[in-house]
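It is worth pausing here to work through a concrete case rather than discussing structure prediction in the abstract. The textbook approach is simple: state the sequence, then state the predicted structure, then interpret. We follow exactly that order.
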Amino acid sequence: MPLDITTLESWLWDAACVIRGPVDAPKFKDYILPLVFLKRLSDVFGDELARLAEEYGSRDIAAQIVEDERQRGIIASNRGSVRFYIPGNARWPNIRRQATDLGQYLTDAVRAVARENPRLQGVIDLVDFNATTAGQRIVPDEYLATLVDVLSRHRLGLRDVEPDILGRAYEYLLRKFAEGQGQSAGEFYTPREVAVLMARILEPKPGMTIYDPACGSGGLLIKCHLRLLETHGEQQNGRHRLPPEHAPLRLHGQEINPSTFAMARMNAVIHDMEAHIRLGDTMR
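Step two, the predicted structure:
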């Protein structure tokens, strides 16, 4: 059963409490969300390796296929058996086992992911977990280790959470700590049910162009993409894909907030969406 919103919010609150001491509340999301991103990528990659292992009857063969595609640049060009490649040091089980220098390890891990996957450059590698201020670490390793333990409670694979789990996490953290300071978050998300209804009313057809001028984390674009797969897609190699005779949607979005822009880009990668998303102010 997918992670429900109540469990998600409780989980994120526990994560925020872990770093409550060293980090001001408005900045909690700056450290929590990149790790949620990384865990999501790692769990999806694990799911895809498991699918290939089942298909070929061997995990070793599956790993060799993926490694061969990585070396030949097939995955980086979005033509591989997996959506993206996660290097060994960035896979969540290895992160959990890291006992020393965790801040530097996490920073190296997200940068390694960005190097292997050009589509994620400038998306996942923006945070320095080893950063200091006035000569002191902003988030010491012991806090990061506890945060990793908390985030390890739930899987974030394709079948474990709703498609826009990243946007929902951001929305909760933004709202929670803006309210805590007596402020308005200033950002509002389209409820999932409304986005699903809008996609059904639109009933996208192959080749249709869809533009969201304030796309946030890409939730509405995702729903339109999934609706097209529901009505015109077919199972291919364990994934729901459009057959060759159907053109994909031409998805476009613009977002003013760099954090939600990054999430929209990552969501597009995770969901195999050919989406053109730009950072900027639609009103200018």
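Step three, interpretation. The longest helix spans residues 28-56. The beta strands are 132-133, 136-137, 209-212, 234-236, 239-241, 250-255, 275-279.
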